[in-house]
Specification:
This protein has 4 helices and 10 strands. It is an alpha+beta fold. The chain starts with a helix and ends with a helix.
Length: 221
């Protein structure tokens, strides 16, 4: 009798642990696929994530290995690389029309600015985001983002205009609050990307490398 009770308790514990793992993996998988699929379509280039780990209890977690590849026509591999960043969201809204992201904190993102004779990579991505936001808003649902912070970022600048030049500059911090749920996901992403790209290009335009500064300033203006 006692043995049966013990086996019953063990069985219940196994079921609970298995259920917890299924829920956790489902949340991580949903967030990862949403970032990669929606991000790639909106940016017009490949967006990838190595790993997502979010607690099903607190909604807090880490997204690791976030990368935005450069569009076609550029020689460098990536436009943005973030090793890992903090996210907090309302888990239950993952299954609703409006996903509530309470907080996003990016620390030390690496941004790569490549200038060519016809434009630069970041502007190309931003143009793609603008087109996605204007074309069919709401295709990817809606996002309500309570707080966004980016700090400690750097921009690696590269151009072959007027001779090959490169430099690295710091990017100013960005703090945004209350990106309303009235915005479609495309618009929320565009607002954040616009701030990041504008800061990176402004840092490039103010760089001390004359050929690089002039080439990017002309496009920035």
């Amino acid at each position: 009798m006692k043995r049966g009770i013990i086996y019953g308790i063990i069985g219940i514990l196994v079921i609970l642990v298995a259920g917890f793992l299924v829920i956790t993996l489902s949340i991580d998988s949903i967030v990862k696929s949403n970032i990669e699929e929606a991000g790639s379509q909106m940016a017009g280039t490949r967006v990838t994530v190595d790993n997502v780990s979010i607690s099903p209890f607190s909604g807090e977690g880490t997204i690791r290995g976030f990368r935005v590849e450069n569009p076609e026509g550029y020689s460098t591999d990536h436009a943005i690389i973030i090793d890992d960043f903090f996210i907090k969201l309302d888990i239950f809204t993952l299954f609703s029309d409006v996903i509530n992201v309470e907080e996003i904190r990016l620390t030390g993102p690496a941004i790569y600015v490549e200038q060519t004779l016809t434009g630069n990579n970041l502007r190309t991505i931003l143009n793609n985001l603008n087109e996605a936001a204007d074309a069919e808003p709401g295709t990817y649902g809606s996002l309500a983002i309570g707080y966004f912070l980016m700090e400690g970022g750097s921009a690696d600048l590269y151009t072959e205009v007027g001779g090959e030049r490169s430099a690295r500059v710091e990017v100013s911090s960005i703090e945004l609050r209350d990106l309303s749920e009235e915005h479609a996901a495309e618009e929320a992403v565009r607002q954040i990307a616009d701030q990041i790209i504008q800061q990176a290009l402004q840092a490039a335009a103010q760089s001390g490398v004359e050929q690089l500064r002039d080439a990017i300033r002309d496009f920035f203006d």
